[in-house]
Amino acid sequence: MGAILVIDDDPVAAKLLELTLHPRGYRVEVARDFTSGRKALEAGGHDALILDIFLPDGSGWDILKYLRNELGLTLPVVVLTGHRQEDFAARATEFGANGYITKPFSPRDLAAQVERLIG
Amino acid sequence: MWRRHGDSLYALLVVVVFTLELGALAALVWVSSLRLGGLVPRSRLNVVLIGAVIATALALFGVTVYILGYHAVSAVLERRHTEALSSWTERWIQTLLYDADPPMPPLTLAAEESALALRDLLRGDDGLALTELLRSYSLDERLIDRMRGRRLAPRLDALDQLSRARFPTAFEPLVQTFVESDAVARLMAGRAIALTLADWPEGPERDRACATFTRALEEAPLPSGAASEVMQLLEGAAPQILRALLSSERQRPELLRAAADTVGRMGRTELRGQVGQWIAHPNPEVRSAALRALSRLGRVPLNLSEDLLTALDDQTEFVRVQAAHAAKGLPQKLVLPILYESMGDRSWWVRRASAESLLRLGAGGRATLEKAARSHPDRFARDMSAQVLADSHTAVEDRRRPLRAQPMEVPA
């Protein structure tokens, strides 16, 4: 049905996303840090990206900027973060994200949002 | 767990090694002194000397072996623990989302840890279902018992776990801990209570719990920043508690300040009036917090305009700064001449805040700022207006430029 890249250093969140999306027919690839996430994006073949902002070796914002400006990819991006800074949602939109969800989250709602974005 | 025991064992080993070394050196000093007095033969001194060297070598060998062994064992145990967590996480998700059979009691530590980590991530019905499932294993009772223990570290661990689990059954014991504990445990208990209330379904029970927590906040002092942090975790339950805190005439200033800050940070526009009533409070910190909140909320109610204009003449600099920021929420006709005037304030920060507010007031504000840059009677006001206008041009130019990612290093 579609391939989804999850870039999140939290193993529980990654497992939850994987087990939520895989049974719905998506192929889920997980990258646990900035470097492997960037490499996975360069390899391509994804239909959507679920992106954490605070990664151990870099920032999700940089991945988003790299994705839009350097790779020129238009795939839908959902920013998923545990930090509730006031300006994060606005910044996510400014950098080209299509969705913004804060942790804790409902896996069913997130799956529905991904389904809507992929179409 | 292993590291905690391993560290204790290491401390014991160090004590043994130091005691051994101390004994060996004491014996060496004693025999050497006797030898100097000719009271023992040279061969006796040689024996003690060799004994001390052997003891030192054994001690160093023991410490080295322990450190190497500690790291080797830690690596193996941590790998096993990570695997167990992953496996348990999968099992809990299968139980919650796909109706797999729940695990049989008793739960292992990895099972508890993974369930609580998962609970911390879940919102809505799935989260509540996991809380209920964990309660069926009596995890709430075990954590409450641990929270009431005497040693601080396990108590804090239990409070952290309770904040993840969000057991409504732990609410009353948590409130008791919040009221009776020291500052560190109080903050942890406050966080646990706030997260529990945030997930509590709406209804009379939650209303009662909110009222109880409001009384606890009034009774047990928390520093303003900590109180605000706790209140922000309340999410949907916040308005009821904030409204109650902001309605009390005899409220402690620290709590009023925290509540006002929280309203602003959470963007709770429905509480604009409750916050606004404190912009003339005798305490400058409260006045400042209320004005800051109004500034964050945007529009300022007209009935507050007189108090806000008075705040622009406040004796305390940081109050005037916040008043200048909040003033942009008043109708333009009223505020443009006032901000023009406050551009001549003696404080650099007030002039800057006034100029920034003017800039945000659209064409009228910008025209006033340009007029101030040209012809304000105060030289510093003219300089500040010109500077803020120049900064705004730079910002516009920056926005027009396409976003370019910074070059990123990728390790080979």
Topology:
The complex is a heterodimer of chains A (119) and B (412).
Chain A: E1 2-7, H1 11-21, E2 26-31, H2 34-43, E3 48-51, E4 54-55, E5 58-59, H3 60-70, E6 77-81, H4 88-94, E7 99-102, H5 107-118
Parallel strand pairs in A: 1-2, 1-3, 3-6, 6-7
Antiparallel strand pairs in A: 4-5
Chain B: H1 2-36, H2 42-98, H3 109-121, H4 125-136, H5 139-147, H6 152-165, H7 171-180, H8 183-199, H9 204-219, H10 224-232, H11 238-247, H12 253-266, H13 272-276, H14 284-297, H15 305-311, H16 317-326, H17 332-342, H18 348-359, H19 362-375, H20 379-400
Helix pairs in contact in B: 1-2, 2-3, 3-4, 3-6, 5-6, 6-8, 7-8, 7-9, 8-10, 9-11, 10-12, 11-12, 12-14, 14-16, 16-18, 17-18, 17-19, 18-19, 18-20, 19-20
Can you offer a commentary on this structure?
The complex is a heterodimer of chains A (about 120) and B (about 400). With about 120 residues, chain A is an alpha/beta fold. Helix content of chain A is about 45%, strand content about 25%. Chain A is built from five helices and seven strands; from the N terminus they run E-H-E-H-E-E-E-H-E-H-E-H. Chain A has helices at about 10-20, 35-45, 60-70, 90-95, 105-119; strands spanning about 1-5, 25-30, 50, 55, 60, 75-80, 100. In chain A, strands 2-1-3-6-7 form a five-stranded parallel beta sheet, sandwiched between helices. In chain A, strands 4-5 form a two-stranded antiparallel ribbon. The longest helix of chain A is centred in the last third of the chain and has 12 residues, at about 105-120. The radius of gyration of chain A is 13 Å and the shape is globular. The termini of chain A are close together. The relative contact order of chain A is 0.19. Chain B is an all-alpha fold. Chain B is about 75% helix and about 0% strand. In chain B, helix 8 runs parallel beside helix 10. Chain B is extended and about 105 Å long. The interface of A and B includes residues 11, 13, 16, 23 and 107 of A.
